[in-house]
Amino acid sequence: MNNKPEVKDPFAGERLKESHFHPRQALLNLRDAWSSWNGYKFANYYYDEEYEYFCVRNSCATYDICPMQKYIISGPDAEAMLDRMVTRDLTKLKENRVTYVCWCTDEGRLIDDGTIFRLGADRFLLTCGSPSLAWLRKSAFGFDQLQITDMSDTIAALSLQGPTSCEVLKKMGLRGIENLKPFCIAHFPFADSEGTPLMVSRTGFTGDLGYELWISPDLALAFWDALYAAGENYGIQPYGETATNMARLEAGFIMPGMEFNEALKTIHFQYDQTPFELSLDWLVDFKKPHFNGRKALLKARDQGAEYTLIKLDIEGNKPAEESFLYSDQDCSKEIGYVTSAMWSPVVKANIALAMVQTAALKGSIWAEIYYSKELRHHSKVAKCTLQEKPFWAPERARATPPAAF
Amino acid sequence: MKKYDAIIVGAGHNGLTNAAYLAKAGLDVLVVEKNEYIGGAAVTREMHDGWFYSSCSYVCSMMRQTIHRDLNLTKHGLVLVPYLGTVVFADNGDTMTSYHSEEAEYNQLRRRSPHDADAMFRFQTDLGRYAKLIRKTLLRTPPDPTSFRPRDIRELLWLAKEFWSLGEKELYEYIRFFTMSAADFLDDYFEDDLIKAAMASPGVIGTALGVYSPGSAYILLHHVMGDVDGNLGAWGLARGGMGAISNAIAGALQEQGGEIRTNAGVDKIVVKNGRATGVVLDNGDELQANIVVSNMDAKRTFTQCMDKNDLPPGIYEKAKNFKIRGSSGKVNIALSGLPKFNNVADNRYINRGGQGFVGSMETMERAYDCWKHGRWSEDPFIESVIPSAWDPTVAPPGQHWMSNFVQYCPSQLADGPWTAEKRDAFGQTVINKIERYSPGFKNLIVHMEVRTPHDIEAEVGLTEGNIFQGELTIDQLLFNRPFPGYAQYRMPIKNMYMCGSSTHPGGGVSSACGANAAREILIDLKRPNTVPKDDFYDE
């Protein structure tokens, strides 16, 4: 018996929560590079940002999505309620399928984006970056026959991304995983547990071949060990926030706090965005009768967006972080600003996402880039080329079965 | 008979780059290649079931990013992945790891020598300064110092300005640096022998010089001036092997309408009335072209593939005496598992990058002594990389491919020609040495390909198997490469050019020689230039 008096941590209230995979991830976080997400301790990177990024593009890597918000919405009214909340037509979403959605305020301003999983006729899983319980409850007014359960802390989840990801899951014994199509869901047995406690969706945030793996917290560590054992010879490695941000930018995916300011957190009038401004027109379905923000969005569509989110390929190799954009090389007429920028190691291009005045899109675009060299600041003006397609979109991300890595 | 605008001899990466830029300018180009596959020394071949060897060159850092981007090589399948963690081994069993974190690296150097840990900062800074200058010349045509053409004068002035920007003291140091030995250069910084040996090894790679030979300091720089995504001195692997580079360039070439013909070795470059008019293939077929571009090395081009009578006598002589000595062999090994090494922690990062079996400064010099006497080194310097630890596509899962670059190994042996037995004995020397540091290594061997300089010459066509197409010493660099007066890619025969590593900026998978030559050709043909300017992180 250990009779030592328990020492209370006087800072307990200030410390971050630890994810279900923390013990394993902490061991591999050689640089102690921690950041945070939704109250969880969360790795910025583990060993080296660029190495982790390359694991996503070259072998495979895992990203902890335990801190992501997860809600189960169930009951006879679940479909109708969600369909009214989001801008996409959810009635078309089949069982065991996932869809990317966004939802807006009455004024048609973007609150958040996320994914909805249809787990059954009356059962949905909604995942998103920021806590959304209050908005979900508000959106459920008038729908009595449903239940909203916050599962954020009670589902353990890992995103497994990269060219060898399918092979690793095969190696783990997930039979038929190669036939799982993008945005589809399958359930698998795990170890000695009863039934099929492991849910796999072919989803991700990297634009590459990849899966998200969902399991109950009590199986989390055993699951990690099994996954890493299977991945040992396939270059498996955890990756953190920095590598995620690189991969998602190459894929052209938007990020809250970068491309858009969540409407419910926006103080200044119209400093938030409509889906049209974010080039998410394809997410807004006016064919369905009513949804939140419909009227305002119809008006916004007819008026046309003042700003449009675009992809830019910029000459030179200085990332255009926080650059202003101009219609002329002399930088006399400002037309927009860069939201995210980086040198893309895989494409070997200087890429960016940017908000540009829609009217100025036809003309030329120049970025005023600031950079520093051994403490001295410099600036340059670089020509930008509008890019229609994602910077990185390999065939394997869409193919079923994905070709051998 | 069809007449091409240009025929390029040799589908190595420089030949393909040259052709791609000519095709991009609208020229009708044909690349002829003696082997049934393309790539030259940047090639991937499945030599054993499931194992894809980069048979010759095996890592990449010189590749001009500007060209990668401009030719959109990613679209054509090229992904360059940086690799981390090299361990060097000393004769006495000591090891030293190059960690990927500056702090870890510093702590480790400090354990060996606090002085050297500190001196490393100055060493890296000086190398960075020298590299910065040389890097700027890579995608430029060297000026002719004797010419009064405005372009040459402009370029000379530019070069002078760049040199002067070093400052007076550094300029003296730099000039000295070009003629120094790696050992003398390193003595200025370090006291620990293993640190010196580790740093000196790039100074002799691919070269018939020892660590104490004058000129080896520059070669050291040549090996650390590359970068991967702006990380100076970093090395990368081409996903799928080095052949991925050649294949991607070939893809860009074919997209522009260029043509490649394999199994088409060139017997002779045809010269009529002092002009190159085409080539005669080994099978006797004659192909006509307005210009002929040789991607073969200078010695092979002029002494093997041209009629002596077609050449100015001086040129034949220069080509014959061109310094292109074979000094290295290559042993490609398929392994059933990841080897473990004595005194190296078994962790997921450092036991799988590269291994440098350097021994000591003395051991490296002794290895060179053997070469001087026409023997392969009894205790060779080996630079190994296990690409399969990073690249899942080159060996079956859980099994590995190990590339071993071995020095020294002569092209001609003192005791008569190379035979299969001698080659095996050379291979045994190599694996015996590795076994010393990795007990049980031999039991992991599934397949092994031993390549002597003689084999490399026979297969790739590099004279004496010299990996640089000619030594990188000051007498053969910049406006001296390949010969003084002919450094601007134009050869003494009209309508004939060179685009291989025998030209500036020399060896390495950089695509720079091919691109520079294309730019000169397009100037002569009065076509718009398609070759981009180089783009630097430290502009």
Outline the secondary-structure elements:
The complex is a heterodimer of chains A (405) and B (539).
Chain A: H1 22-28, E1 34-37, E2 40-43, H2 49-58, E3 60-64, E4 69-74, H3 78-85, E5 97-104, E6 110-120, E7 123-128, H4 133-139, E8 147-150, E9 156-161, H5 165-171, E10 185-188, E11 198-201, E12 210-215, H6 220-231, E13 236-238, H7 241-251, H8 294-303, E14 307-314, E15 324-326, E16 334-344, E17 349-357, E18 365-373, E19 376-387
Parallel strand pairs in A: 3-13
Antiparallel strand pairs in A: 1-2, 3-9, 4-7, 4-8, 5-6, 6-7, 9-12, 10-11, 11-12, 14-17, 14-19, 15-16, 15-18, 16-17, 18-19
Helix pairs in contact in A: 2-7
Chain B: E1 3-9, H1 13-24, E2 29-32, E3 45-48, E4 51-53, H2 65-70, E5 80-82, E6 86-90, E7 95-98, H3 102-112, H4 114-137, H5 150-164, H6 168-179, H7 182-187, H8 193-200, H9 216-224, E8 227-228, E9 231-232, E10 236-238, H10 243-255, E11 259-261, E12 266-272, E13 275-281, E14 286-294, H11 298-304, H12 313-320, E15 328-335, E16 354-359, H13 361-372, E17 381-385, E18 400-407, H14 420-437, E19 445-451, H15 453-460, E20 496-498, H16 512-524
Parallel strand pairs in B: 1-2, 1-14, 2-11, 6-16, 14-20
Antiparallel strand pairs in B: 3-4, 5-10, 6-7, 8-9, 12-13, 13-14, 15-18, 15-19, 16-17, 17-18
Helix pairs in contact in B: 1-10, 1-16, 3-4, 11-12
